[in-house]
Amino acid sequence: MDIPGRPPPNDTGQRRGNRRPRRENGATTVSANTASDNLSPSGPRNGGLEIPTKPPRVRTKRNKPRPAADGAAEGAPSSPANGGQASRRPKRTEAAADSPQPKASRRPRFNGGLTGPSEGVSSHSHRKDKYKLPDASADDLTSTLIRSLSVAPYADCPICFSSIHPAQPTWSCSPTMPVIDDDPQYCWTTFHLKCIRSWSEKSYKEIKEAWRARGEERDGEWRCPGCQGKRNVLVGGYKCFCGSTPSPNARLATPHSCGNPCSRSKHACPHPCPLSCHPGPCPPCKVMLEVPCKCPRERIVPVRCGEDTRVSCGETCGRDLNCGKHKCQKPCHLGPCGDCQQVVDQKCWCGDEMRQTACGAGDKWVVGTGCEREGPVIDSLGWSCAKPCQRNYDCGKHSCDTPCHPPTLGSSPCPLSPSNVKTCPCGKKRIGADFPVRASCDDPIPTCQSTCDRPRSTCEHLCQARCHADECPPCDELVIRPCRCGNVHRSIKCGDLYVTDEEAGITIEAPVLCDKPCTALRACGRHRCNRVCCPLASFASAKTKGKKRVVDPAEIGEEPGGMHECDLVCGKMLSCGNHRCEDRDHRGPCAPCLRSSFEELICFCGRTVLEPPVPCGTKIQCTYPCVFPPPECGHPKTPHVCHGDDVSCPPCPFLTTKLCACGAKMVGNVRCSLDRDKIGCGTVCGKLLECGFHHCERVCHADECGACTMPCGKSRKMCLPGHHPCTEPCHAPSACSEKEPCQTIVSLSCPCGRIKQSVRCGRSTTNTSGRSDVLKCTTECEIAKRNARLADALGINTASRDKNTGGPAVYSDELLGFARMNDKFLSVVEKAFAEFVSSGRKTQVLPQMPVERRKFVIELAGVYRMDYRMVDQEPHRSVELIRRIDTRIPASLLSSQVLAGSRPNLGKLGNLRATPVGVQKSSAPASRGWATPAGGSRAATPPSRMVELPASQAAPRPAAGVYRPPGARHVVEAPAPSVDVDVPDDWEDDA
C-alpha cells in the first residue's frame, strides 16, 4: 500500500541512500554509485561507468484523477530523509495542484510505454555518453583489445593462461619499453604484471650469469613471449598503456588506461595521438603535409603525415639526360633519370668504324689524347675499334701502332726522333757524349755493353740481358712456388709463371699444379671431389682433424657455386612420392615438393573437398563413412571411413564354415573373407599322379597336383634278389635304365662276421657284379674267436652286449696317463660322449675348458670316430663335436682300461670294486663343471692302495703323457685283496 507523501518501495531514491534520479534537460541521469548497482553482473567490473540501461516500466491507471494528497506531497518541501532532492524540482502552482492532471503528462519523461524489438532505447540515450565501449562490429586491433579487457570473457595471459580481470595489474608489449632491434615490431599482447615480471627476471638473470661464466660483464636480456622481441630492461611497476600514469584507475571504460590523451611518441611523426590512453597501436596520423615534387617545377603535393614523402606531380620530368642533347620524357620521379635510350650512329676514336648505340653510351678517355698522349683530356664518350691507329707522326716516316685512341688536331711527334731519344735503351750511356749524334729518326739507336736492368711489368726482377732496344725477354730467375693445393713446392722460371689472358688482355700469374687428386668429400657428403690439385683440399682435411669446431661452408667451398659443391643431381624421391629432387646432391633431407594443383581435390564420396591450391602429394582424409555396398557374403559391413576405389574395404571378420581347398571336408571357425585355396583340412591329397604309379603327397591344396617329381622307387632288376629301389626321378611308364650304379647301401663282412663295412651296391649295366668282394679277417678276429671259445668254456653269456658298441679301441699312453690323474673329468667326458652318440644331434658344443683338457677331449673324440672344430676365443674357447657316419661307442671304454691297468686281471677271482682295507676315500671337493680341479689333484682315488716311497729311493718314471702336479710325492700302487664280484661282460676284450 502506497503512503501519500512517500515514494514507493521500489523507488531508487529510497533504496539507495534516499537519492533520487536527477533530471537534466528532460532526461534522467543515474549517478555513479546507483548505476553500478543497476548493471548486469559484469557491470561492477566496468569501474562504475555511466552506461545507459533500460528503465523500469511504470504501470499507471488511465483516466483516473490523481489524489490531492499526492500532489501536495510533491509540492511539499523535502525532508532530510529524502536528502533534499525534492527541493530541486520546479514548484507547481496551486491551480495546477487543485485540478486533477492525467498521468499521461509524465509518461514521455519516463518512457513508461511498452517497447518493441526495435525500440529498446533508454530514455536518456540521446544524451552524449562520456564513456562508451567500442563498437562490437569494429575489427581493428585496438577495439579488439579494449573489448577483451573490458567485457567477459576476458583475454587470457599467455604465460599463466588465466583470465586478465580489469582490477589486476598488467603489462603490454608496446613502444613504452623499446625493443633492441633496427626494425622494432611489437605484438601489443597484455600479460599479468606478476607473470611477465617473473618471466623477465628469470631470463635476465640466466643470460647475465651466462656472460659472467664466460668472463664478461654484460647486462642480461629477455624476450617477449608473444613476439620474441629482445629487451635489456626489466619490467617496472604498473603503468597505463601510454606509460604516463602509474597505477591507473581500473574503474574507467578502458581498464588499465589513465583516461588522458595518449602520450606515446610515434615513429616519423611529431603529432600526438588523437585517442585517449588505449591498448594496441596508435591510428595513422591524419595531418596533411605539403611536399614539393622533385621535378624542376617543384609542384606542391599533399601527403598524409607518416606516409611516403617521395611524391610525384605526374607531369613530364624535362631534365637533361646524360648525353646532354635530349630531355627526360618520364613522369615526375625521384633519383637520376637514367641514360638516354635513343639510338644514334657513333664513330670510333680513329673514325674507321661506325656502330649504332644508345645516345650517350660509350667509354670515357681518362688519359691524354694523341698517339703519345700529349694532348689534353676530353670529356666526350666514345669507343675503340681495337685496330692499330696507323696515323703518321710528324716525321712522315713512322706511324702509330697503338690501338684506336682519340686523336689530336695536329700530328704527334715521332718517338724515335733524335730530340726524344738522348740515351741508349738502358739509359746508362748518352748519345752525343758516349755515342755519335743521330741525324734523323731513321738512324739506329746505339746500345752499350752494360746490363739492361730495366724493371719488368710482370715481376720484381730486373732484366739481366745486355742493353737492347726491343722488349725485354722473359725472366729466367728461378722461384719456388707452392702448388695450388699446397701439397708440394716447385722451382720454376719466373717468366713461365705469367700468361696473357686473351679475353681481358692482361698478364696474370698462372697457378702451379701437382698431380694429386683431392680426396675430400663434396658438399653432398657422398661423392669425392677428385679435382687435380684442389685449392680447398687442405681446408677439407683440416675439418676432420682435432677437436670439432663450427666450420663455415664458404671456407671449404661447400656454399652454392663453390668448388666443393656437388655437380650431380640428387635424384631422391621427395616427400610427395611423385617427383624426385632436382637440386644438386646435398646433405640432409630434400626440400618439400613445391608443385601444387589448382584443381579441387574431391573425396570419392564427394562430401569432402580441398580447395586449391593443393600441395603435391596431399592425400585427402575423409571422415565420413564408406559408401561402398556391403560384402556379398551377407554379413554386416565393418564400419570404416571413406576411401577410394583403389583401396578395398576391410575383409569380413565374421567366422563361418567353408569348404577346404581340396573339397574333401568342411572346415569350421574360418574367417569369412579367407579364400578357399587358403583353407586346408590337413589331409594328404593322395590323388594318382600323371605317371600312374605314385600318389600326390601334398597336403590339401586347390591347384593341380602337377608332374611327378618323386624318385622312381621300383626294384632294380640287376640287384635281385635284393630289393634296391631306383633312385632316378620318376620315368614311368618306361622301364628303369640301370645305367647308373646302384646307390643302395649294402654290408660286407669278413668270413667270421666280425668285421663289417657299409658300401654302395654299385651294380649297373656296365658292372653286373657290383661290390661282391669279401673282407679279410684280422688278428683281432682270431682273438675274438679265442675269447668266444673261452667264454663258452667258462659259461659266460656275451649276447647282452650293447648294440651301439663297436670293436675294441686302442688308447695312447698320453690318454691313459691323463685319465689316471683326472678320473672324474674322464667320467664326465665319457658320459657326454655317450649321450651325444645315442641322441640324433649332428653337433654338440662342449663347455669351455683349459688347453690340456681340450687336447684330451680332441684325442678321445678320434677314438669315438667323431670330427671336431674349435669355437670362440680365449678364455672361452671350447670344442664342438661333429657326428660322422661311423661314429660309435668303443667296446672298451677308457675308464675300464684305466681301472684294469691298475690291478691284475683275475676274472672271478678278484673283487675290483671293493675298497681296500685302511684306504680312505678322497675327501677333495668335486670339480666345478669342466674346469681344472684345485691343485691339479685327482677328484677321486681309484680303488687301489697307495704305498709311499722313501725319499732316497728312486721313483719310477711316469708313463708318457701322465700329468704330475708340482710337489707331488711319488707313489706306487699295491694290489688290493681279491673279493668275489660280478665280472663285466667285456672283460675278455682286454686280452
Strand content: 5-15%
Helical percentage? 10-25%
Q: Helix count?
A: 13
Radius of gyration: 60 Å
Structural class: little secondary structure
Mean pLDDT across all residues, rounded?
Answer: 75
What spatial order of strands do you see in the largest sheet? 25-27-26
Largest sheet: 3 strands, antiparallel
Q: How many extended strands?
A: 29
Distance between the terminal alpha carbons, to the nearest Å? 146 Å
Low-confidence stretches: 1-103, 111-131, 544-551, 800-806, 904-929, 932-991
Assign an overall shape: extended
Describe the overall structure.
The chain is extended, with a radius of gyration of 60 Å. The relative contact order is 0.03. Helix 10 packs across helix 11 and helix 10 packs across helix 13. The strands form 14 sheets. A three-stranded antiparallel beta sheet has the order 25-27-26, covered by helices on one side. The protein has 991 residues and is low in regular secondary structure. The N terminus and C terminus are likely disordered. The chain is built from 13 helices and 29 strands.
